[in-house]
Amino acid sequence: MRHFLAVSAFLASGLVACGGDSSLEGTGNEARPPAVISEKDNTVKASACTQYYVPRLTTYWDSYPMRDDGQVGQCELDASCNPTCWGVESAYPVYTDYFYCTHCP
After folding, report:
1. CA neighbours within 13 Å on the CB side: how many for 43?
2. Separation between Cα atoms, residue 51 and residue 46, nearest integer Å
3. Is the pLDDT at 83 greater than 90, yes or no?
4. Per-residue confidence (pLDDT) for residue 87, from 0 to 100
């Protein structure tokens, strides 16, 4: 189940990069508890960062089994869970290099 949630979070981040309306909230472990900070003008701000275990690299293929010339796209996450993508997504993803990234709203 944890693997499914991590993959879902990664796919959601890809949708955000491609203009979709999704969020990474609520699928990982909190890196630190929410902090409330009072400022000089008596306003209060709340912030929390969430840590996710996700694949760093997702490669999209035109079919399974994969062919040398069949790669159609790729997304890579940075340490802040921000994806960098090229090409197109397909129904044939391969996830590699799992790591912890930290998303702060």
Report:
1. 3
2. 17
3. yes
4. 95
Cis amide leading into 65 (omega within 30): yes
Overall average pLDDT of the 15-26 stretch:
44
- Please name every residue paired with 37 in a beta bridge, in sequence order, or none if there are none: 45
Specify the amino acid at residue 94.
Answer: V
Q: Which amino acid is at 25?
A: E
Return the DSSP state at 52: E
Tell whether the torsion through CA atoms of 24, 26, 32 and 33 is positive or negative: positive
Burial class (CB in 10 A: 0-12, 13-18, 19+), 70: middle
Q: How many residues does the chain have?
A: 105
What is the 3-state composition of the chain as percent helix, strand, coil, each rounded to the nearest 5? 15, 45, 40
Half-sphere exposure of residue 70: CA atoms within 13 angstroms, side-chain side: 14
Amino acid letter, residue 87:
G
